[in-house]
């Protein structure tokens, strides 16, 4: 950020510093979540129950319990509430870590890949910290560790390999500590451990192999602690670092390549093997500890290190150490002699005692560090701990999962103090070995899962957390059509597929008829809705695809024709021509055989008797396509024989009247292959090939079928009875004449890229709104434009438009245009709205992959995925979306009664292109903080300790778009929208 003193044209925005609520924040800014949607009906309400495998990531943050469902949903339970709240749905949520009251974790939002996230326990406060490795691959952060006010972690930025990073929780404050592996490759930091305000970790610099390093968070303060095995081909490979009251214990290879216990005070001189502390005296020590190797499960209990170790005399047993050779001792030979316990695991510190599980019978043991004080707490002849006993301290007692030997299918939560006699059962469940799981202590409660349901106890009473369903299953509504004031569509209710209808209300949404698969090609003709659907043939009891129709008055549904009874017809287009329904189909030429197939054209007026075959076209299974009604005549593209090729045809419904309009390309090896047939003001326009793709028109006669212009058209679209299309990087329009086929606008492209597709979204005022998607070697973020038909009047609204690579589902309502776009060329969609201005263009849904936008009675309906409901039918609540805004807009925050003083915030210019100048009048010698957030809720820039009455340049690194500027002064927050063009 640059500080400057010059002054330009001033826009003064007056408002009071105040605490905006999260709802005000979202409404003011314009990025809204699923609150914008209203559920019409949960058509498939069959639940997807949870199992014990669906829970993970249990983490306590100041008494609040966080956890993850199916690696996709982050939840929190806040004390003393018994309600679990879902904070965010992402992918691959993991690595939950509590850091100074904030939860950090890694997750993938489907746009940025796996990156660093944090949450303060609110939905709005659950945000990505930084996009370290831009793109869908992500930086894959892990090993979050708090040290001296910073969060350290391992990540890769796509260019320097996996290295050590740090963050203060802001985008600007997140950076690499040091590129330790300076050559190609990764240093792979691990075992991150805080000790005395410094971070200790294991890493590889490419010269010394894996050794322990130290950092204070700066490049200058990052160094290797000690090269334990110099001049050796294999380094010491330290692991299991643990800080015990200022001593760093770890396990590493010695000179003889045995894993030994080491201790360090953080200096090279103070780093030594515990077993050979006296070696430098000239006389090697030959105490039993010198023979102890392979220490594991290092655990801190009341200033002492406990671990499992192996020596020749005792096998693997329990040991302890204070960091000296004399103080490193066998605690107890649990299985006397050189034999080891079959099981020795789950070392857990609680109430200054060590608890662990040992012996082949999975007994719970306790130790105070003495041989006599190390004993079994459970009688192995009567009880057996589960394979995952979840040792958890709670209210002075150790709790664990176990079963009585005579009732192994009944799992108990047992609580025990320091004696066998104190054992008591807290709760039990008899539904099998894994019916009771996930013992977790948080705040004043002990949590557990029974048969997929989350419960908790305060030690006396038990309480079920609100019913957690990952979601009900999807009904997946699709194939929408509006007919006679109702929406009709295909959906799955959990039992079968069917044709559904809806007037947009819960009670007005109902099943019309059941089928065995999705209904397709829904087409209205008169008072009937026609479609193809699979049903069970009553004679053969096999699936049979038939043409069906539904009476739009009374919902009576009957099948119209079954051309290939008991078989799987290959279906094609349906087109209504003045009450007669035409359709194309492929049928087997030999009964009972799938191939060869014949392409045919048929017609019907809705009864079996009126369904007539018109004619066949070919024997290669290519049915007529692009069926289009123009003034009572059916036009289509069809292939007859190889000598003719695919050309333009028409039909009056008779065999004799079904003829080729014109042999457009006389070369049969290069047929004209008419496509994109469209009716504009009773003229048929289409694209045909005659050595190149060109724009053609036809009135149904050979002479009236001619090329309009020698141009390469694509995306033929009708808007306000005018034909528009794309040609290369230009938008064109045509009145059907060569002279009247003119360029409307030319759009810029990124360097080396071309426009892949152009989408005419509609008109706002005098301007056409156009979306462009780019491709170079891969798809690039698209752009949104407006044009009045002049070069000067063709300007970018958003360029690029974040992460959108393709556009679809365009719906216009007044001056507002709604559209969906593919996110990074993936199946994930975002829903956007534009009024033709930069300020009024923003995403209104960035999750749920909305699609199938449908307008009914001035309300927009769509399908979207809700975390709890699955993929269902929703309506768009436009009252929850901010209205159009001016480029220079004043927002006045609500007054905070605890802070009545007025401040004047100056932000100019707004909109800006390079940077915006910020100045705030306020108390002398006082400071404030600033954060700039995008519409996804991610912090893009942040500044700390700015001084009042001074000018600062902000937004220099921001791409074009709309952002929220937040000024934080103590507990008071003021918010204003800023725009970068």
Automatic annotation (TrEMBL):
Q: Which InterPro entries match?
A: ELWxxDGT_rpt (IPR030916), Secre_tail (IPR026444)
The record's keywords, sorted A to Z, are: Signal
The question of whether Signal is a record keyword is answered with: yes
Secretion signal, residue range per the UniProt entry: 1-23
Note whether Signal occurs among the keywords.
yes
Descriptive protein name: T9SS type A sorting domain-containing protein
């Amino acid at each position: 950020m640059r500080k400057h003193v010059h002054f330009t044209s001033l826009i003064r925005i007056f408002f009071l510093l105040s605490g905006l609520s999260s709802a005000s924040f979202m409404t003011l800014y314009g990025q809204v979540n699923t609150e914008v949607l209203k559920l019409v009906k949960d058509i498939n309400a069959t639940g997807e129950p949870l199992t014990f495998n669906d829970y993970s990531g249990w983490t306590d943050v100041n008494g609040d319990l966080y956890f993850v469902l199916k690696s996709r949903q982050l939840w929190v339970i806040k004390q003393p509430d018994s309600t679990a709240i879902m904070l965010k749905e992402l992918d691959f949520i993991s690595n939950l870590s509590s850091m100074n009251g904030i939860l950090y974790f890694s997750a993938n939002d489907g746009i940025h890949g796996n990156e660093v996230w944090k949450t303060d326990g609110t939905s709005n406060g659950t945000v990505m910290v930084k996009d370290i490795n831009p793109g869908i691959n992500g930086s894959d952060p892990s090993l979050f560790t708090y040290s001296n006010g910073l969060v350290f972690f391992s990540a890769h930025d796509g260019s320097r390999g996996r290295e050590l990073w740090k963050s203060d929780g802001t985008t600007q404050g997140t950076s690499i500590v040091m590129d330790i592996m300076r050559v190609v490759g990764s240093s792979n930091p691990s075992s991150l451990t805080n000790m005395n305000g410094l971070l200790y970790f294991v890493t590889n610099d490419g010269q010394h192999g894996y050794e322990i390093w130290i950092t204070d968070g700066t490049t200058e303060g990052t160094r290797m602690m000690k090269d334990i095995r110099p001049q050796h081909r294999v380094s010491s490979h330290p692991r299991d670092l643990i800080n015990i009251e200022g001593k760093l214990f770890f396990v590493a290879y010695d000179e003889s390549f045995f894993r030994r216990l080491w201790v360090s005070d953080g200096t090279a001189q103070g780093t030594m093997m515990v077993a050979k502390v006296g070696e430098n005296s000239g006389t090697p020590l030959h105490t039993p500890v010198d023979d102890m190797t392979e220490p594991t499960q290092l655990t801190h209990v009341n200033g002492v290190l406990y671990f499992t170790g192996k020596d020749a005399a005792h096998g693997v047993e329990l040991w302890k150490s204070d960091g000296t050779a004399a103080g490193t001792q066998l605690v107890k030979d649990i299985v006397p002699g050189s034999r080891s316990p079959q099981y020795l695991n789950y070392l857990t510190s609680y109430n200054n005692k060590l608890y662990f599980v040992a012996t082949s019978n999975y007994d719970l043991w306790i130790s105070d560090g003495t041989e006599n004080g190390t004993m079994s707490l459970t009688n192995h002849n009567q009880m057996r701990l589960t394979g995952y006993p979840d040792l958890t301290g709670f209210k002075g007692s150790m709790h664990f999962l176990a079963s009585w030997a005579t009732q192994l299918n009944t799992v108990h939560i047992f609580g025990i103090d320091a004696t066998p006699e104190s054992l008591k059962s807290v709760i039990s469940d008899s539904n099998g070995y894994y019916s009771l799981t996930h013992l977790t202590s948080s705040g004043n409660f002990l949590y557990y899962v029974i048969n997929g349901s989350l419960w908790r106890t305060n030690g006396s009473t038990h309480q079920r957390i609100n019913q957690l369903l990952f979601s009900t299953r999807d009904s997946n509504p699709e194939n929408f059509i509006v007919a006679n004031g109702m929406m009709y569509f295909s959906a799955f209710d959990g039992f079968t597929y069917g044709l559904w209808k809806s007037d947009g209300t819960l009670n007005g949404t109902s099943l019309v008829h059941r089928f065995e698969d999705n209904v397709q090609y829904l087409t209205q003709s008169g008072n009937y809705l026609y479609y193809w659907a699979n049903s069970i043939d009553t004679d053969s009891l096999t699936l049979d695809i038939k043409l069906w129709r539904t009476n739009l008055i009374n919902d009576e549904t009957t099948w119209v024709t079954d051309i290939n009874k008991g078989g799987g017809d290959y279906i094609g287009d349906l087109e209504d021509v003045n009450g007669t329904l035409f359709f194309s189909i492929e049928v087997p030429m030999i009964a009972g055989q799938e191939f060869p197939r014949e392409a045919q054209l048929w017609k019907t007026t809705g009864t079996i008797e009126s369904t007539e075959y018109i004619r066949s076209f070919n024997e290669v299974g290519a049915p007529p396509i692009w069926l289009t009604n123009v003034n009572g005549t059916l036009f289509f593209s069809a292939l007859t024989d190889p000598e003719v090729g695919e050309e333009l045809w028409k039909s009056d419904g008779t065999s004799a009247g079904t003829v080729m309009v014109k042999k457009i390309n006389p070369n049969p090896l290069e047929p004209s292959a008419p496509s994109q047939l469209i009716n504009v003001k009773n003229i048929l326009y289409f694209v045909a090939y005659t050595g190149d793709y060109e724009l053609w028109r036809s009135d149904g006669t050979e002479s009236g079928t001619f090329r309009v212009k020698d141009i390469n058209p694509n995306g033929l679209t009708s808007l306000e009875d005018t034909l528009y299309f794309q040609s290369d990087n230009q938008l064109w329009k045509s009145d059907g004449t060569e002279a009247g086929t003119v360029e409307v606008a030319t759009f810029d492209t990124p360097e080396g890229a071309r426009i892949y597709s152009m989408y005419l979204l509609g008109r706002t005022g005098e301007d056409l709104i156009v979306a462009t998607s780019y491709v170079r070697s891969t798809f690039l973020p698209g752009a949104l434009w407006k044009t009045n038909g002049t070069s000067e009047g063709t300007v970018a609204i958003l360029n690029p438009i974040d992460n959108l690579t393709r556009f679809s589902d365009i719906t216009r309502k007044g001056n507002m245009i709604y559209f969906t776009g593919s996110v990074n060329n993936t199946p994930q969609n975002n829903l956007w709205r534009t009024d033709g201005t930069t300020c009024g263009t923003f995403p209104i849904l960035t999750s749920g992959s909305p699609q199938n936008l449908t307008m009914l009675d001035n309300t927009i309906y769509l399908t979207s995925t809700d975390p709890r409901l699955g993929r269902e039918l929703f309506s768009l609540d436009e009252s929850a979306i901010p209205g159009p805004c001016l480029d220079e807009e004043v927002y006045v925050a609500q007054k905070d009664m605890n802070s009545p003083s007025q401040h004047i915030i100056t932000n100019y210019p707004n909109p800006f292109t390079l940077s915006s100048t910020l100045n705030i009048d306020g108390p002398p010698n006082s400071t404030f903080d600033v954060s700039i957030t995008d519409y996804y809720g991610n912090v893009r820039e942040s500044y700390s300790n700015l001084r009042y009455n001074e000018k600062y340049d902000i937004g220099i690194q921001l791409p074009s778009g709309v952002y929220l500027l937040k000024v934080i002064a103590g507990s008071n927050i003021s918010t204003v929208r800023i725009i970068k063009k």
